[in-house]
């Protein structure tokens, strides 16, 4: 679906700062692709480049990102470069930005923010009907219908995050890019959201790219995993394979360092 | 046909600038109430006084009265006042002695009217003799009853009211609107916000004093209106929206003449202004406060002034200088200034110094001519007549000497008072209600500062200004005080200098705000008080008083007031002017009705 | 219950503010050097009418009695506060005795309110509009020109601006009248047009100046908002510029301007003073000015108290309704 | 439009603004010392001259050299405007911060004061004070009065910001770092409103200068001191505008406008630059 | 003072209001919570889902929020109230230091980060001069694997979250406090750093004798790090004890739910299988994934 071909991405107009270095990556139809990596390794940057969001001073220095989208129903195929993805936003691709506590308009009720930006095909029926569909959809995330009438600040962080995932998924896109959608949420909520995302992916049979630095999350839901380190992809392959047999040193330490409830405790090492 | 924006034909409407700007309570025309302004035509056209003033001759004339009052006893306390016959009120009722008597009693019986107290203080009784005669008794010898009950300058508070209207009203609350009027015009319309008032000529104008004395007034309508700031008034006249303007600055007149060739001042040429205003401008002292209590100081300060420069600074030289304590109007110049110039020239200060400079006008004339001003007479006498008989010399050396004699010291350019403190002066000046005094204050401050005494001007709004002046809360001030005179009889003007009126600083004084005590002067004033206005001793006494004032110099008198009062001849002509001097140009006085009656419509081209 | 407590608390503050304002207003002029009686006498004297000294003294005494300026300052103060708070009566005007102050104010008020309120609102709307656009697209040349115009007009001294407007539009091109002449039957179309006609220049002069201020402040606001996460997110949702501006930037930029508007009402009364003096416009400002000049205590109290009360009320009303407009405050 | 493009550029704005402001400071602070004669004194020059080499901006109807008069006026107005702006911003920002940060009774008292002062229209009171202080306000008194009426504006705004700042975590960190309340206000919270304060400062400079000129125009300021306001006052008094002596009345007006533009460019340039610096890695 | 427990929390509670246009109805965010931190340095974890009152509790200990009920005693002396014994601000800040959740919010964007460390050393009288303060800061930074040289003159945007959090820890260490209250210190930090920070805590407890209140929703780090765990739900402590005991044999259903939500490697959530089963017949892919899951479960 998306082909990232030897791409170098960075920031700055005068002095170019490299953030993603000669990366090759393919996103297939109907899969959950995980991206792991330490902070600052360029995960978000890669996501922005794929989404085609160049508003932050992002620049593709070399290489290309091309996409091929088959429309639901008609099957018409659109091919484009990531620079032209703008026209596909919130239609073929949707995006859950990182650190999304403040991405909702404080003066708009949640319902409006879900509807705002919906492609035509998803706007079937009258307002009441649409609302009911959204409400049902949200229920799947453990959110009551009343959330629709709330202003963002009335929701807890976990609720807001779920709303964001819901907004991005309700569009029914071919590709969802989720940048750390569950970081900073408690595990109970995290689990709910992850399950929901899997469920949606299975139903829509679209593609989901999930960025997370929590390997446990990747283990649970991704089909394929990419590990980034200092702007480069150091390891890629089916998730199970990587956990079974990590190749790169960084991946190995990551997996090894995860605490387990039944495992050793720091105190015990005394 | 061209119409005004109040809906009258422009050619039949005379538009006059309203003196006190907008009227806040336009539907109250009860002139006896304290806060009612009647400068919107009521005073000038619709009301009438018992006695009015002929400003060209400088004499009082009968108005509603048929003749000047006749004293019935030696000590001037009883008078017979005959009334004009054949007058009617604007509602058709005849005007009789009953109206006069009613008015007097109404005032006396209504203490809520502020004027009541003043009236009772002066007038003991008014009684009817017949339908057209009353007798008046005063509370004290009053040789000049016509001054107490009639207009000398501007107007008088005593207005006869129609008995048949007022007898059923409480004068303290009665609004008198729309008013029943006695003179040739009646109320027609007004702006609810008080920006304009429209008056219409009465059909029975013959039954009015104006009709009897002058004839039919030509303007069918007279519109009094306010245009606000000076800029606006100037623009309005430049665009022919106003025919008569009250006071403006010389610069404004200059602009008007450039913008519109139908606009003219009192003179067609230099100095444009009317110089016969009966009030004089000068620098006043609170003579009860050191160091201004010393005549030496005052004389020193006078000689430190370059009057020529001050004149140009104030009104570009368009002023008539006066060293005497009366305004240099044509009438008074003939009576006093010219005859006294010999005495002035020989007058010496204590140290033998002769301060008078008879060539002031000649030198100013030269300077103005050199600055390119046209129309300055060559003849020295004509110049003196125009710019004044002379003024005090500008002599900084003598000024220094006088000040040092008075105990001042000057070390290194810094003047110190006799008590050793630095000598600085603050001149109290009107903030924006009297431009000539205000500018004069700055001009004199400029002179004194150049002489070496730091002087600043403290401008005050009217209310604060008069409070300060009356309570003596000032040292040096620039305004007329009570320096107005129009007739050769100087009583009105000089009475104010009597020591009886001196009050402590802090207590308001009604006269003699300069708190000047001069025994000889007061004795002369006592003499003047006792004789009537037509007595032959009037002028010699007046001369003596003026000499006394020159010696003591409680005021540095400087210039007569120049009135820049332009008219626009597009719609009306035959305005009074220097060449056509049938009245002075005081459009806001009660005698305006006589001017109005003599205007002619401009020939339609 | 909490709602009532909140409102009650706000009302108490409101009352205190008003009383504080009235107190200042009571004492400041009385500490001043203007004695209304002397001012009144001066008015008589300045017209040159002759009265001899004993007559003047008699007049002075009778004026003091009628104006009721007797008793100690504190007594006058309590009487004043009681009278105003209980009856809203400011007594008679001193300089226009015996016309009641309330009557004068009521005549002037509609003019001032009509002129100031409309022009302030127009300026607010225009200013917000232009400020929003130029903050949104600072690189477009039209927004730069607008900003430039606003910045150049805003600092021009008001007096000069008004004067130049008059010269241009009333004298050189005689479009608008030089002075206010309002004619027409009550409630007639003529009256309305006449009012609009006469108020245009004073209104325009206010709009021009105030407009500049709004442009500058709204532009700053908008520039900051553009960086907000939710605006960027809206863009990432593929929303068009118009939509983002209308639904995301505008409401967030406008909200703080609403509180500003309340403050602006206070400045409005300042502005009215000069405008009305300049255009000879029959409103409160001119009345205040007259009152100051004449030392007309009662009128002064009446007019300024009214503006204090108006501003205090406006701020209070905005404080009270603000939670209804801004959901964030509502639920804090 | 290429010129306009330049304004996009923070340094350009900043430098142009600084240039303008520096020019005014230079003209106002240095040139007055070189005036050939006291420009306030009348008749040091011929009257009503048009601009020429000897009189670069012509002379007034009172025989004053407009150029030198302008330099003096600029000096006084600048001093007045800057001092008023400095103190009202300082007091406003500090009290606003204190009220918002401290909360409790201090907040209540200060908020009350702000609300109350904001409700009192300043111009009539200034006119009253003009009467109170003897008809004509000396510049320092005008200044004090302006400060008194102007500090509540920034204070109210800043208080609102401080209220939200109080919730920010870094304020707690600062407290645990042992910072005193004053230091927290000044060093930690203030920078967040510094840009806003600068804008307010600049606006208040203008308010100071223009209120003074409003007072002057109705004859209530100190007419014998040279300020931009009194210059306009005298020009209006002598009908310079109608008499088409545009330089006399135009010079002070243009000076006010240019000064404001200069200050505005400095403040917006500064905020653009500091934003750019914080964003850069 | 010796012998008194570092912290005694006795039946504290805190009321907030929620809902409604103005105010709303009151509810207990923290309700009747008691626990004690013994004198010997320990890590005390408080675990619970979002909104369970963890932060409120921590803030009461940090004196940032006034408790509505109950008392808190630090080293035997009251923390709140008006009594003379009450610990003054300076002393309190030398004894207790916080670490907050969001490292990007913990420092002003307008101050170089170094300032915070220097000021802490100076204000809390750890150092008497700038030079001493730099030394103290450097020492603290080195104990978290950084150095003063590396952070000198830099601003918040120039650091990663992990670095910032370590700087936060370093700052908190400067006064050698008795107690550090860390409110979700690692939830915003990536996995590799998370463990290094957690290990850092352990190391600090052991080497510097500092006690920790460690607040988290992540049971695994709590289990890994702490000596004592309290599980909170809806403002109450539902269960507390040694981590081994509680987590091995959770008596509360709530605790079990928490445990089940941890994305553990090697134990796939059963719910995922259900989803896959539901959509299995629709999957177009080769079915490898289904096999894969099978293998791992066996
Ligand atoms: N807007 C920007 N301008 C300049 N540099 C940036 C910008 N955003 C990120 N960077 C830099 O690019 C690099 C990669 O950042 P990125 O946000 O992609 O990392 P990440 O893997 O998403 O990290 P995290 O897990 O912390 O989100 C970092 O060094 C970062 O400092
Ligand atoms: N200032 C406040 N006013 C009103 N309610 C509050 C306030 N602070 C917290 N609450 C409420 O108190 C409850 C407990 O909040 P708290 O922040 O302590 O939970 P938490 O366990 O830290 O949650 P999280 O894991 O999301 O940080 C929540 O319902 C919250 O909405
Ligand atoms: Mg990222
Ligand atoms: Mg929390």
TrEMBL record, chain A:
UniProt xrefs under SMART domains: AAA
Compartmental location: Cell inner membrane
Residue span, ABC transporter domain: 2-255
CDD domains: ABC_NikE_OppD_transporters
UniProt keyword list: ATP-binding, Nucleotide-binding, Transport
Domain of life of the organism encoding this protein: Bacteria
InterPro entries per record: AAA+_ATPase, ABC_transporter-like_ATP-bd, ABC_transporter-like_CS, Oligopep_ABC_C, P-loop_NTPase
GO molecular function, one term: ATP binding
Gene3D superfamilies per record: P-loop containing nucleotide triphosphate hydrolases
Entry membrane topology: Peripheral membrane protein
Family to which the UniProt record says this protein belongs: Belongs to the ABC transporter superfamily.
Protein name as annotated: ABC transporter ATP-binding protein
Lineage: Bacteria, Pseudomonadati, Pseudomonadota, Alphaproteobacteria, Hyphomicrobiales
From TrEMBL, chain C:
Residue intervals of the ABC transmembrane type-1 domain: 109-322
Transmembrane parts of this sequence: 7-28, 111-136, 156-176, 196-216, 299-322
CDD domains: TM_PBP2 (cd06261)
Compartments (UniProt record): Cell membrane
Species whose genome carries this gene: Devosia nitrariae
Chief subcellular location: membrane
UniProt topology in membrane: Multi-pass membrane protein
Pfam families named among the record's database cross-references: BPD_transp_1 (PF00528)
Gene3D superfamilies reported in the protein's UniProt record: MetI-like
Membrane as UniProt keyword: yes
Annotated InterPro entries: MetI-like, MetI-like_sf
Family: Belongs to the binding-protein-dependent transport system permease family.
Keywords of this entry: Membrane, Transmembrane, Transmembrane helix, Transport
Entry protein name: ABC transporter permease
UniProtKB/TrEMBL annotation, chain D:
Membrane-spanning ranges: 12-35, 81-103, 123-149, 214-236, 248-270
Chain ranges of the ABC transmembrane type-1 domain: 74-267
Pfam entry (one): BPD_transp_1
Cell location: Cell membrane
Coiled-coil blocks: none
Keywords of the record: Membrane, Transmembrane, Transmembrane helix, Transport
Main localization of the protein described in the UniProt heading: membrane
Membrane association type: Multi-pass membrane protein
Family in the record: Belongs to the binding-protein-dependent transport system permease family.
Full protein name: Peptide ABC transporter
Organism from which the protein derives: Devosia nitrariae
From TrEMBL, chain E:
Residue stretches making up the ABC transporter domain: 7-259
Keywords for this protein: ATP-binding, Nucleotide-binding
Protein name: ABC transporter ATP-binding protein
GO molecular function: ATP binding
Gene3D superfamilies: P-loop containing nucleotide triphosphate hydrolases (3.40.50.300)
PROSITE patterns found in the cross-reference section: ABC_TRANSPORTER_1, ABC_TRANSPORTER_2
Superkingdom to which the source organism belongs: Bacteria
Family: Belongs to the ABC transporter superfamily.
Keyword ATP-binding: yes
Coiled coil stretches, renumbered: none
SUPFAM superfamilies from the UniProt entry: P-loop containing nucleoside triphosphate hydrolases (SSF52540)
Organismal lineage: Bacteria, Pseudomonadati, Pseudomonadota, Alphaproteobacteria, Hyphomicrobiales
